[in-house]
Design a protein that fits this description.
The chain is mainly β. The chain is 4% helix and 54% strand.
Amino acid sequence: MLSSCSEDDPALKSALESGRITASESEADSYTRPEALLLINNGDVSTNQTQVSVQLSAEDLIIMGYYLSDSETSPEPSTSGWVSLASQERFSTTLSKTISATEQSHSFYVWFRDNHGNISDSATDSILYDVTAPAGSVSINSGASSTLSTSVTLNLSATDSAGVVAYYASTSSSTPAASNSGWQSITSTTSYSANISFTLSSGTGTKYAYVWYRDFAGNTSSVVNDGINLQSGYDFEDGSVPSNFTMSGNKSWYVTSSTAASGSYSLRSGSITHNQSSCFSFTESTTSGSFSFYYRISSESGYDYLRFYLNGSSSVYGSGSQSWRQYVLTVSSGTNTFKWCYTKDGSVSSGYNTAWIDDIQMP
């Protein structure tokens, strides 16, 4: 929002071309006007303070004065308000000025004059007085009610007339100071949205993410938050097989991104052939309550099976082509062993000849 007078003076150009003047600097200066520049708060677009700094500068062979105003009306040489200066070629100063506490754009204009009475074009700059903080929102995993992982995605959104320039995300509800290193700068925009990675606090139960937004003027929004139920279990979203899983059979299960009940990853049975099996298991001390997992099967129907065992007893099995579905059962408190096996009979392979497991939720 900056402008300055930098065009050639038509009168000087005509005089030089016609030969009416010499190359004498003093004579040429009688036809040229000073070049002026004005900045408010170093060119900032907005502020939440009524005190601003106005920086003035100009160049001419002999600068004799300036006229500063909040009106764009050009002054006459006789207009009161001109500030006289000791003659100089280059002038600069910074003035402290007060703008009204009205949320609108505020402008200043300056003109300079030289010893010949030439008055510059106006130089001007504007700044928005803004005390309205951004309005924002946040959701965790697109509004999901629960998760098995502390690694989640925050869906951020905020608007501000002067431009959102930063956000702060935390597991604490304490309002951050402007100098806090956790503020994340973004390119100024009046409408901001992004998905960012975030780590919840550890331990099961409802976990919250708290977010603040800041605009160019330094206004900080009220806190916005979202909660999600962090449950104990396995979702494989870190891309690895948990270290407490024990593999057995002919081939090991492995993490894949080819399909998932939720998120991006699931656990897939090993590539086996006829009369082979691929199994994994783990043992945990649990409370009594609901245990669940999602499974998918692509196999020869009625012959090649996915089986689940709780403490050695088969609780569920399936074959054929089955899309993702959830299995839920109640387990007793104490030490429990959970096991899954994909097994093939002696002939024929159908579909992908495999099974997948995802989102194992412990009680």
